[in-house]
Design brief:
Number of strands: 12
Number of domains: 2
CATH superfamily of the largest domain: Type I PLP-dependent aspartate aminotransferase-like (Major domain)
CATH class of the largest domain: Alpha Beta
Distance between the termini: 55 Å
CATH topology of the largest domain: Aspartate Aminotransferase, domain 2
Bound molecules: pyridoxal-5'-phosphate
Shape: globular
Oligomer: single chain
Structural class: alpha/beta
Amino acid sequence: MDHSRLRDASKVVHAGQAPDPSTGAVMPSISVSTTYVQESPGVHKGYEYARPHNPTRYALERMIAGLENTGISLGDDVTGGGFAFVSGLASIATMLDFVPHGGRVVAMDDLYGGTGRLIRMVRTPSQGIDAHFVDLTSDGAIKDALTPDTKLVWVETPTNPLLKVVDLAKIAVIAKAQAPDAILCCDSTFATPMLQRPLELGFDVVMHSSTKYLNGHSDAVGGLLATNRQDLAERIRYHQNAVGASMSPFDAYLTLRGIKTLHVRMQRHCQSAVEIATFLENHPKIERTVYPGLSSHPQHEIAAKQMDGFSGIITIYMNGGLDESRRFLERVKIFALAESLGGVESLIEHPAIMTHASVPPEMRTQLGISDSLIRLSVGVEDTQDLIDDLSQALG
Ligand SMILES: *Cc1c(COP(=O)(O)O)cnc(C)c1O
């Protein structure tokens, strides 16, 4: 059946999936075989060895290709342009492999800490990447940064942890005119395909840390890529095998299982986060609340145009400093003090000490990742219970 016309709530259940022809099983089995028998040398059913070929991983890859509407047929790529890796970072590393030695990379200034670390500490020394970290919410900065020799543009939106929102369509138009050789990649982890589809806005590749919302249950690490360009699909497929960071069948099974409820989970995350952000914005102990769904957010209008909801992450600046932040973080009871985000359980963390400790201190200061900054990931628990918890911890 062609699933491309289904709406999102149906796609998360069905895209790229079909009952197993031999048993009728509605979920793919966890296929553990590392090798496949051949009738004659080179004569086989399309499966030779499990690093490149695994049916459980393919089922997940067809799903992400379907959710991101790649438009690539299964005849042109075995999963239609979807790819699953052992982690979000492994998928980012694969895209960085496409930058020739010494090539120019333009990246958002506010990024997941590990992405900046990979570019700065690993690929700049090993590959001579000429990296430029730029505030891509500024029109002037985009125009200056996207030079004709740019090989890769790496955007995150909304960003981690400051929730800046980048106008993807605008960047795609400017890049087409000024930097035609650049591959445009968007880390869409915070939005998921339910809220934002970068390929439809002119980007070439969309990336997700499936560890977060897509799997959604805090029990599997993974990274996904999807592209609508046949040439890139071929290169990514080649690299996925040649470099070897393909996702394990068990994690692919868990992630696919998690995605089946993505649509209902995201609805809940979004609804609760709006209420909680409003509560925090009006609380006297909070200096500033950053949430793309609030009209006070500097890019609220772009978010409203580009996204179908504002996701479940909220960033706040407490009044006071580290002592006040520490006390609040120690007192919450339902919100768990932990790294990561996007799971069914609510999490809270301190970026400067926890997730973004690898960002150079002067860059943290410049961006505003201070000791009073706290990031919340709103889970799917009862909204009032979550507000009560924050209220008692702030009290
Ligand atoms: C977590 C995260 C990553 C890294 O993904 P891993 O699965 O932890 O390797 C990349 N980008 C964003 C926005 C993230 O939140």
